[in-house]
Amino acid sequence: MPINSGQSDFRGKTMRYRAGQPAIFVLGSFCRSLAAVVLLAAATGCTSTSIEDAAPQSATVTGPKDTGSYPNLNIPAQQAAEQFTDVDKNAKLAALQADQAAANAAAGNAAGTPDPAELDRLAKTHASDTLKQIEGKCDPALDPTCK
Q1: What is the DSSP letter of 63?
Q2: Is there a domain that residue 100 lies in?
Q3: 132 vs 144: CA distance, rounded Å
Q4: Mean pLDDT per segment of 10 residues, for the chain of length 147 residues?
Q5: Domains: count for the chain
Q6: What angle is formed at CA 27 by the lines to CA 26 and CA 33, rounded to 5 degrees?
Q7: What span, in angstroms and rounded, lies between the C-alpha atoms of 136 and 98?
C-alpha cells in the first residue's frame, strides 16, 4: 500500500497514513501485548495450589461482627487517658522552656561569639592557604605533618 494513499475505515471516513505512523501502530500493539502478558503472569502468580501456602484461618477473627441489631450511637465515648488540666499543662510547658534555656546556654558557652576581625582575616587568607596545600607547597603553619 503506498504512503499517503486514502483508505476507508469501518465508519466510511478516509484516513491517511504518513511516514512513521505504521511504526507507532506496531509499538502500540506491542505495548498492549506486553501488558496482557504481564497481567496474565500476575494472575497466575497469585494462585496457590498447595494447602501449606494458604493462610491459616483463625477462629479469633477480630473486626465487625453481626449482632443482629443496630448499634446504639447515643453512648458517649470514653476517654482513653486522663486529660491534662491547665495546671499540668503550664507545669510541663515551664519544664520544657527551662530545658530549652539550659540547652541554649550550654551551646552558647561552648561556641562563643565569633570575632569579626578574625573572620575577616580568615576570609582573606583561606583561599591562598588552601591552594598552597593543594599544590603541594607545604606550610607547616597550616599542616603540622608537612615536611
Answers
A1: S
A2: no
A3: 14
A4: 52 54 60 78 62 57 82 87 93 96 77 79 88 75 72
A5: 2
A6: 90
A7: 51
C-alpha cell at 7: 483508505
pLDDT score, position 26: 57
| DSSP-H helix ranges across 46-145 | 86-111, 116-135
All 3 cell numbers of residue 28? Answer: 502500540
The model carries a pTM of: 0.26
Secondary structure (3-state) at 134: helix
- Label residue 132 exposed, middle or buried (CB < 10 Å: 0-12, 13-18, 19+): middle
CA torsion angle 112 118 124 125 (round to 10): -90
17, 5 in Cβ contact below 8 A?
yes
* 134 within some domain: yes
103 in a structural domain: no
Residue 25 lies in a domain: yes
Residue 91 one-letter amino acid: A
Domain ranges, residue 138: 117-147
